[in-house]
Write a structure and sequence with these properties.
The structure holds two protein chains of two kinds. Chain A is 73% helix and 3% strand. Chain A is an all-alpha fold. Chain A has a single domain, classed as ABC transporter involved in vitamin B12 uptake, BtuC (Orthogonal Bundle), CATH 1.10.3470. A two-stranded antiparallel ribbon of chain A has the order 1-2. In chain A, helix 2 runs antiparallel to helix 3. The N and C termini of chain A lie far apart (52 Å). Chain B has a domain of 148 residues: P-loop containing nucleotide triphosphate hydrolases (Rossmann fold), CATH 3.40.50.300. In chain B, helix 3 runs parallel beside helix 6 and helix 6 runs parallel beside helix 7. Chain B is globular and about 45 Å long. Chain B starts with a strand and ends in a 26-residue tail after the last helix. Classes of the chains: A mainly alpha, B alpha/beta. At the A-B interface, helix 6 and helix 7 of A face helix 2 and helix 3 of B. The complex binds adenosine-5'-triphosphate and magnesium ion. The site of adenosine-5'-triphosphate has 16 residues of chain B, from strand 2 and helix 1.
């Protein structure tokens, strides 16, 4: 039981990072980014190549992928999303879906569709934590996730840029009146989302393998983002953890009853149930519309 | 000097809200623009600060100059960086952000002394310092207007524009607020364009006033003269008593006079 909980927290902390990607974009731009999963793929494949083909040490490869992801996200916003400002939500949503398919096709062409093992980033074996032996990769996933969240929370609370981004999230008109470039904040949000996507993706691939279906896996973090309220960084952390734990429990206790499948959909079931009860998620900002 | 020349504003391509208005705000002065609901006062401020677009509005004629440079049609962040700062109706605060965070945003693109940080705001408004960690949305209406003013103080613009700051505030708070507006003007040398419905108080601190109705300026004069003007007294300062009230221009305004008494 403890073991189940630990692995749930480990997977959950990766879901948290992936959920953060959805939140960072939604918070400022109010766009549901259905290309988030493929942004995760890009970072993962890039790290993979840098390690296996270029022979770079894993941490350096991850760092480069994060920077590259940031640039990619930034550019996508500039080129594709910017012209869509003011267009109906549905059009923007369809655009991100289309974008996602295109990126995936390109990745398939470059790297091929078959799964490959991700080069081990962490020492094998396990580590003793609170009297439990847990795999090294789990341990590092939890540590990295905490690190990412501490950094982002500090950034949003302390830095002028972070406060500006929250200002845009609160009221775009007021933000521009005070001299903040709203379009720059949008581009930054996309950059950061792709950056954290690369981190989440590398951990995901370390536990599974590098393959083109990781984006579907990454998408299972979406309910975590919704549970957390879509616009709350802390909410993404808790939402992601909750999904990880719930999935593990469902896999253990429900799957045997149904003959499998529960683990894969339970996150979405929980999301629907939660939305019915609390439309703004557990930590989301309730709409205070003032005219 | 801020100079608005013959500006026209149209919403949704058919609604003519401002029909050729000219207003001058000389350096270091307080100028007030008065007028009843729907006169087009806010529309002029929107035109200047570049936020018409997000309201489906556009400038269809005229121009706006700051120190000789045209700023008409520029995006809001650019207008702000050029030195024009708008406090919109309600204060324009970020309700989810704390008092301190709101103030820090005032330092963006400030022409003032960055090293002093928030010092000046705390010094002028000690009440705000006590509430530094409170979310702006939880402040009282008066405190919110003070915070909006404190942020403008830190922003140190050339021209500060305020849209009906007295709206919904108790008379005593309005006195205090107008005291600060005058102080910002006198001690910081910031020119002010004050939009108000509270004509008496606005004219008391302004050096020049414009009166606007239906998208046009119907009267402009030094504030002292407006305060003495017989018709202004009657319709805008609430001195008119007789049962046959006439409007300044036409009878449509009959119903509006009441709000001017506040
Ligand atoms: N976004 C908009 N779309 C269409 N019409 C608008 C819009 N905003 C204002 N108007 C119209 O333009 C005219 C001027 O409005 P404006 O808000 O500028 O007046 P105001 O003098 O600020 O009034 P108040 O004292 O009530 O704030 C009004 O007739 C109003 O109905
Ligand atoms: Mg108005």
């Amino acid at each position: 039981m403890m073991e189940l909980l630990f692995s749930g927290v480990a997977i959950g902390s990766i879901y948290s990072i992936l959920a953060l990607g959805f939140v960072l974009i939604f918070k400022c731009t109010k766009v549901f980014n259905f290309a988030q999963g493929t942004l995760v793929l890009v970072g993962t494949y890039l790290s993979f190549t840098l390690i296996t083909d270029a022979g770079l040490p894993a941490p350096l490869a991850l760092l480069i992928s994060m920077v590259a992801g940031f640039v990619l996200g930034f550019v996508i916003e500039r080129l594709l999303l910017r012209p869509m400002i003011g267009e109906p939500v549905l059009s923007v949503l369809l655009l991100t879906i289309g974008l996602s398919e295109i990126i995936k096709a390109v990745l398939g062409l470059v790297w091929g569709a078959w799964p490959r093992p991700f080069p081990p980033m962490f020492p094998g074996g396990s580590i003793n934590l609170l009297g439990q032996n847990i795999p090294q990769v789990y341990f590092w996933a939890i540590i990295s996730s905490l690190g990412v969240f501490v950094l982002f929370i500090l950034f949003y609370r302390q830095s002028s840029m972070g406060i500006s981004m929250r200002a845009v999230a609160t009221n775009q008109d007021y933000a521009s009146l005070i001299g903040i470039s709203v379009s720059r904040v949008f581009a930054l949000s996309w950059g950061f989302a792709a950056l954290v996507g690369a981190v989440g993706g590398v951990f995901l691939a370390s536990m599974l393998s590098v393959n083109l279906n990781l984006d579907a896996f990454a998408f299972r973090a979406f309910p975590g983002a919704v549970l957390g309220g879509m616009d709350s960084v802390g909410g993404a952390l808790l939402g992601g953890l909750a999904i990880g734990i719930i999935e593990n429990l469902a896999g253990k206790f429900v799957d045997p009853l149904l003959g499998g499948g529960a683990k894969e959909v339970i996150a979405f079931v929980v999301m629907l149930a939660a939305l019915l009860v609390k439309p703004y998620g557990l930590f989301g900002t309730e709409e205070i519309e003032r005219l | 000097m801020l100079s608005i020349e013959n500006i026209e504003v149209v919403y949704d391509e058919v609604i003519y809200a401002v029909k050729g208005v000219s207003v001058k705000v000389p350096d270091g002065q307080i100028v007030t623009l008065l007028g009843p609901n729907g006169a087009g006062k806010t529309s002029i401020l929107r035109a200047m600060s570049g936020i018409l677009k997000s309201r489906e509005g556009e400038i269809t004629g005229g121009n706006i100059f700051l120190d000789g440079q045209s700023i008409a049609g520029h995006p809001p962040e650019k207008v702000r960086r050029a030195g024009i700062y708008l406090i919109p109706e309600g204060g324009g605060l970020f309700e989810d952000l704390t008092v301190e965070e709101n103030l820090r945003l005032g330092l963006l693109h400030s022409r003032g002394d960055q090293a002093d940080g928030l010092g000046k705001a705390w010094e002028w408004f000690p009440v705000l310092q006590q509430r530094a960690w409170v979310r702006a949305g939880y402040l009282s209406g008066g405190e919110q207007q003070m915070l909006a003013l404190a942020r403008a103080l830190l922003a140190r613009p050339k021209v500060l524009m305020l849209d009906e700051p007295s709206l919904g505030l108790a008379p005593l708070i309005v006195d205090e607020l107008f005291g600060f507006i005058r102080k910002i003007n006198e001690e910081e040398g910031i020119s002010i364009l004050l939009i108000e419905q509270n004509a008496r108080r606005a004219l008391a601190i302004a050096s020049y006033g414009y009166i606007m109705e239906n998208g046009k300026i119907v009267l402009d004069a030094p504030a002292g003269e407006l305060l003495q003007d017989k018709e202004v007294k009657e319709f805008y300062l609430g001195f008119g008593q007789g049962s046959k009230r006439r409007s300044y221009r036409d009878v449509k305004h009959y119903k509006r006079t009441k709000r001017w008494l506040s």
